[in-house]
């Protein structure tokens, strides 16, 4: 609360924005795989591909949104992104054909590719300004941002679970309604011009960025984290269905993850700031994520069901969440040290774009593994290896 009270109005608005974004988003997304596989009737590999396309159209196109933010500013990009998200959720609620589902999912993802780089790059810049003004470590502001994000992710699935008692369309239209409120609020409150944020031309920044090996290495590690996080929507629902006979416990596992972040993110960030540099924080988080997959892989051959069968899934969620609490604020705090002046939006977007490409390829591969006749532990073992393999790429940070 001390950090919150000391922040200016703009970073407070951005933190609350992230909360609202995730309430609308997570009222729909956790239940998308079941809707696609059950109501729409898509094969497992196609469900995985659609989820990967959603992530890639969001994360993969962040670089476009980030460049547009550097050129045109935060306000117009946020407003356009909200309008597109409203249209995408409404379309998804009525989509039945595969092409319509894919179109709606791509539109939903592209909307976030506009507004998320705007919000994330500006909160990172505001965090650096707050640190330079003597407010404290920048990671504290970014941890608050993560807490708001996960508080929204806590409320969203519970809201979506209630709305599914009506149908999936009700969840989609409610998500659209949340973004209508966000659009109206930001039209009124978001400043036209933000002091200290210079606008740059669109061209000229990509080539130096692609030669920045330190930045690209951090992107790959962040991509390994996002691929793991994406399994909350692909591998975890299948494991919950197998153990419990339905996906009813899924909303509670999402709530557990979000509640852990809300309660523990700030203490974990303070502990990491005192004892770990940025590289070690990211590395520790990736190791925790790998351990989460390993827990399920170790127990999966036993074929436990019922409450006992959900224990490994809960262990996976807890360890994945711990890894997220270590990786996400540290990686975001790292980017301003690696970006060129005036290109923070581009670099913020590019990190998500590169990691989104990793998720696209990895999600399709994971969907095929889950559909295969391989031993049930194999997909979880493969996923456990990915975060560990990415550790060797991490560079030494330029600052602690």
From TrEMBL:
It is found in: Cell membrane. This is MFS transporter. It comes from the Bacteria. Keywords: Cell membrane, Membrane, Transmembrane, Transmembrane helix, Transport. The chain crosses the membrane at residues 12-29, 74-92, 98-119, 140-162, 168-190, 215-236, 248-269, 281-299, 305-323, 344-365, 377-394. CDD domains: MFS_MdtH_MDR_like. It comes from Actinomadura keratinilytica. Signal peptide: none annotated. The keyword Cytoplasm does not apply.
